[in-house]
Every structure is written in C-alpha cells, then in structure tokens.
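Schema walk-through. Below, the input block comes first and the output block second. Nothing else is stored per chain. Lengths vary across the set, and this one has 60 residues.
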Amino acid sequence: MKKAPIKVRLVNQEGNIYQIKFPNLKVPVTVNKDLYYKMLRSEDYQFSATNAVINQSYST
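--- output ---
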C-alpha cells in the first residue's frame, strides 16, 4: 500500500535556508538548500502554494 505524500508549504527563504510548514507542527522546520531540493523532487512531499516570494530557479 502506497502512502499519500505529506502536504507541506514553504513559508520563508533567506539565502540557503528554507522554512517549511508541516501539517502537524506549529513551528516551521528549517532546512538547508540541498535538503529542500531533495524534498521538492521526492514523491514523499507535496508542496502547496505559498505567498512567500521565492527564487526557485534550479535545474533538475
């Protein structure tokens, strides 16, 4: 049985630091650029729309 992806939301980005909001946590989780890009490409996470202004220019 395949698990549904976790719906997360990017709330802030400063330099190489990203803050990601998880559904069951009150405080955003801070991750570095490498982990953020791994999460974007992973089937385990589904990123929802955000109001944060983020430069997402990267190559896959």
